[in-house]
Amino acid sequence: MALLSSVPIAAVPPDRFEPLIGPAAYRRLTERFARARDLLGGHAMWNINSTSRGGGVAEMLVSLLAYARGAGIDGRWEVIEGDEPFFRVTKRIHNQLHGEEGDGLPLDQAARERYESVTHAAGEELASRVAPGDIVLLHDPQTVGMIPALKRRGVPVVWRCHVGADGSNSLMSTARNFLRDYLRQADAYVFSREQYVWEDLDPGKTVLIAPSIDAFSPKNQELSGSQVAGILAAAGLQEAVAAGDPSFVRMDGSPGRVERHAEVDEWRRLRPDDTVVLQVSRWDRLKDPLGVIDGFVRYVLPRSTAHLVYAGPSVESVADDPEGKGVLEEASARFASLPSRDRERLHLATLPMADFEENAAIVNALQRRAQVVVQKSIAEGFGLTVAEAMWKRRPVVASRIGGIQDQIVDGRSGRLVRPRDPAGYGEAVRGLLDDPGYAASMGEEAYRRVRGGYLGTRSLLQYIALFERVLV
Ligand code: UDP
Predict the structure, then answer these.
(1) Which GO-annotated molecular functions does the record name (predicted)?
(2) ipTM reported for the complex, 2 dp
(3) Which site in 89, 115, 169, 241 is 20 to 30 Å from 319, CA atoms measured?
(4) pLDDT in tens, 294-305
C-alpha cells in the first residue's frame, strides 16, 4: 500500500514580489533562484510532511513551493499517510517535544514499532522514487524515521523542525531521544530559532530559518471592506446587510469565491457592527481553547460589548491530529454550559477545509474583521496566526512563549501576556478594546515588523543558501 500521496502545487511566478520588496531586492531574489536552479541541475526538491491542510507547515509549503516551481525549480510535496495508531504516536512525540504530557502514554518499544512500521516503509517508498542529485526536506517528527532509507539511497536529507518550546524537561528529553539516532544521519537541520536547536546535534549542520507568511496568498492578500463582509456572509459567519463581495484571488491568480457554508456552526451570526476578538487555531490543547473562552467570559465579556470568535478547521479534515475531535468537543461543551446571554456573544466556528484556498480566504476575512486578535497558546514554535494578524495591522494579544517572543515587541507591535494568566489576558484585550487609537498604532507597528522580517522572500533566500551548503 502506498504511504505517500502527492500534493499538487501551483506554479506562481515570483515577479509579484517586485513591487513589495523593490527592484534591487527582487533582482537579488531572481539571481538566487537562478543559482538554486544551477545547483539542482533539473533534479527534484522533495518535501514530506504529514498533512496537506490545517496548520502552519502546510500553510508555508503551499506558498514556498509554489514560488519555487514558478521560478523553475522542480519542487515536490508528498504527505505521509499513516493510520490512526501511527498519528497517536506522532502526536505523543509532538506533545512531549513541547514538554507536555499529551495522552500520558509512554514512548516505549510498542510506540517505536508503530512509528517505524510507517516511517520505514515510507522511507523505502520515497527512496525508490528519488534519483541521485535530488534533495529531500523532511518536516517535523512524523517523517524522521524515513531518514535511514533515504541515506542508503545516497540523497541529501534536511530535517526541518517546526516545533520547539521554552526550557527543558524530562518529557522533551524522552521525545528527543526517541528521534535522535535517525536524525544523526541527516545532512542538515533547520530550526525556527536559536533556543530550539537540540544541544547534541552537530552545530555545523544546523541552520536557523524563522517561518514566514505569503503576502499574496488567499490568507494574506488585501481584501476590501466589501470583500470581508461578503466572504463572512457567504461563509455563514456574519449577517449580510448589503450585497458584499465574496471574491478572493487564488494562488495561481485565478478568481475564487467563498460559497460554502454548510460546515459552519449554527451559533448566532455576527452583526456588521459587533466588536470582535478572534483566535484562529487548530483544535489542540496547546492552543488553550478553554483558557481563551474562560478568560474572555470572566474578564472581557462583563466589561465590554465585544464578541469572541474562536475558529478552527473542521476536524475530519485534519488527518494527522487524532486529538482534534476531542478538543473541539471540550470547547463546544464549554460554550454550551454558559448562560444563553453570554453565548450570544460567543461564536465557535469550524471552517470548511475541502477547498484550502477558500478556507484561507475566510480566515483572512475573519482576521481583518477582528478588532483584537489573540493567540493564547501554551506552547508555540512560531505562531503563523500571529504574523498573519500583524500583517493585517491587527493588535495581537499573545502568550509570552516560544517564537511569539521574537515576533512581538511587547507594548509596541502587540501585547505579550503570561500563558496561564486569564486575568492578564483579559486586561490586555480590554486595554486595546477601550483605546482604539492605541490599538491602531500598535497595528501599524505590527505590520511594519512583519514586513521587515517575516515575509516569504526572506525564507526563500535562506533555503537557497542552505541548498548551497548541502548540494555543493
Ligand atoms: N489555519 C487555517 N484554518 C483554520 C485554523 C488554522 O487556515 O481553521 C491556519 C492559520 O491561519 C495558520 C496555520 O493554520 O496559517 C496555523 O499555523 P500556526 O503556526 O499558528 O500554528 P500550528 O497549527 O502550526 O501549530
Answers:
(1) glycosyltransferase activity
(2) 0.99
(3) 169
(4) 999 999 999 999
